[in-house]
Amino acid sequence: MKKSEECPLLPTCPFFNSLSLPGSAAILKDINCRADFGKCERYKRRAAGKEVPDNLWPNGKLIP
């Protein structure tokens, strides 16, 4: 997969870079941050200039 197909926000995304389970984080990054990252709610909010809570999942749900 080409680097250009990866979300440009991934290197600084506090959600994915703070996950304590590296295996799970890798799977979630493959699903949400590579290829079709335009569906990610975190990406959409940032692209629209809106605030993105650190606990916002890519599907738009907030975790406690």
What's the gist of this structure?
With 64 residues, the chain is an all-alpha fold. 34% of the residues lie in helices and 0% in strands.
Textual characterization of the structure:
The chain is built from three helices and no strands. The chain has 64 residues and is an all-alpha fold. The protein has one domain (3-47).
Key structural traits:
globular, 64 residues, mainly alpha, single chain
Number-wise, the strands total 0
Spatial extent as radius of gyration: 11 Å
Assembly level: single chain
Beta percentage is under 5%
Q: Show unreliable segments.
A: none
Order of secondary-structure elements: HHH
The N- to C-terminal Cα distance equals 33 Å
In total, how many domains does the architecture comprise?
1
**Structural class, from secondary structure content?**
mainly alpha
Average pLDDT across residues? Answer: 85
Number of discrete helical segments: 3
Reported for the largest beta sheet, the result is:
none
Overall spatial form:
globular
Which bin fits the share of residues in helices? 25-40%
What order do the helices and strands come in, and which of them pair?
Blueprint: H1 14-17, H2 22-32, H3 41-47
